[in-house]
């Protein structure tokens, strides 16, 4: 395995990790932004008001995106295992 192969494997692993985590993080970010805006408009500064909707939205996003996430991870793992003989 050359150093370039190791760099490529690391880069691809980081890309897959970013893609897999994106739906949940985007859902939390959007809900957090909306709740933050509503809190600023109404001057309600309660922490639980922001926490519970974000938690629910992130759980819902995870439940909806889970089949896609599992498919991406399985494809990546299969590709990684199939390329073991070529990298040694």
Could you give a short description of this structure?
Helices cover 91% and strands 0% of the residues.
Q: How would you characterize this protein structure?
A:
By secondary structure, this protein is mainly alpha-helical. The protein has one domain (16-83). The chain is built from three helices and no strands. The chain has helices at 3-42, 47-82, 84-87. α1 (3-42) packs antiparallel against α2. The model has no long low-confidence stretch (mean pLDDT 92).
**Cα radius of gyration in angstroms:** 19 Å
What structural class do helix, strand and pairing data support?
A: mainly alpha
Number of domains: 1
Proportion of residues in extended strands:
under 5%
**Assembly status:** single chain
What's the pLDDT, averaged over the residues? 92
Termini distance?
A: 6 Å
SSE layout and pairings?
Elements (H helix, E strand, L loop, with lengths): L2 H40 L4 H36 L1 H4 L1
Features:
0% strand, mainly alpha, single chain, 88 residues, elongated
């Amino acid at each position: 395995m050359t150093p370039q192969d190791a760099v490529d494997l690391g880069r691809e692993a980081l890309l897959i990790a970013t893609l897999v985590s994106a739906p949940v993080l985007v859902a939390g970010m959007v809900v957090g932004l909306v709740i933050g805006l509503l809190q600023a408009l109404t001057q309600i500064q309660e922490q639980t008001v922001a926490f519970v909707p974000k938690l629910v939205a992130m759980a819902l996003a995870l439940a909806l995106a889970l089949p896609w996430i599992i498919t991406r991870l399985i494809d990546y793992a299969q590709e990684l295992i199939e390329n073991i003989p070529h990298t040694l």
